[in-house]
Amino acid sequence: MPYEASSPAPLSPAWSADDLQPPLFCPIDSAINPAAHRVEQRAVAWIDEAGFCATPRERAWAVATKSADFYARFAPNADEDLLLPAVLWVYWGFAFDDARCDSGRHSSHPETFVPMAARVQRALERPCPSEADDAYARALRDIATRFRRTGTSVQFHRFVAAHRAWLAGVAWQIANQAAGVMPDLEDYLTMRLHSAGGEPTFAMLEIANGMEVPAAEMDAPAVRALTEMAILTAALDNDRHSLAKELNRRQADQNIYTVLLRRHADSLPVAVREAACLRDRVLCRFLRLRETTLPRLSAAGRCYVDGLAHGIRGNAEWGLRVPRYLSRGPVPEESGTAPIAWAERPLDDRPLSLPTVSWWWDPAL
Known about the structure:
Layout: E1 3-4, H1 17-20, E2 24-25, H2 36-50, H3 56-63, H4 67-74, H5 80-101, H6 110-125, H7 135-150, H8 153-179, E3 181-182, H9 185-195, H10 198-209, H11 215-218, H12 221-249, H13 256-264, H14 268-293, H15 299-319, H16 323-326, E4 342-343
Parallel strand pairs: 2-4
Antiparallel strand pairs: 1-3
């Protein structure tokens, strides 16, 4: 059952997240689209034209997400013009998350967030503009127009459904915040599968790569399991990437560490190691199931599943270097490009027994 958020010990800035975190295990080859820099220039120009960043500071943080570098790693072989709309959505998504999900007047008020999010979602769904659209809704509708032009109807509607699931997950997170509730591990993983934004991010792979996955493959349990495992692995990595910043700002609320501190009282080092083990257990299953599933898929299905793997690796590389997570001050600072130390083996590779994810280990997949 959920419990009061005041129960666990707060995350203390006396702990150094950099010292606590073990190296990441990720035996997936690194790759990045050669058009990343050109797409970044085009995307930053679009941000200025779209006008959804209300202040220079908001614009600086949006640009500092390095979203072109991020998604260029998900789709390393995509055509530049197909990659661009996906990159625009990632920039938009980070800015929307910062302004209306993690902070701002809606961030702890589900009664205002839900109708606002529904209006934004509706701007994505309908093909025509509305005078009632705010800056975020107008920018999202522009992205939707680009998706309709470059993708198929099936691809676009898969993205729309994934986008709706993301906003529903965020609404759950905001409801917890408003009620002072910290979820248990089972509920947290269920919520994070949606609230992390992984569903729309991976749903764009089909559009960016210009290949529609047949429904029989996309809806197959094995491909669905692979998609969910990629989402959760990236989400847990993002919890890791943002921990140091949250410790510094004393902002930590719902993340894998505060959830696990319910079990371990004030022992953040124990919670950090358990989170790393949990993440590795999911990734190991992803790697094994991917190997057995790929031979059964069409070229489009293989491209999609390979994109899931690229996304896991790309998200990890991006998150370990991006100013969004590494900057400690009120404005983003450029991060370095020092080599990343990767773990040679996982901390744990046992199946998970939590009902929300245990089906991923079904031998019938």
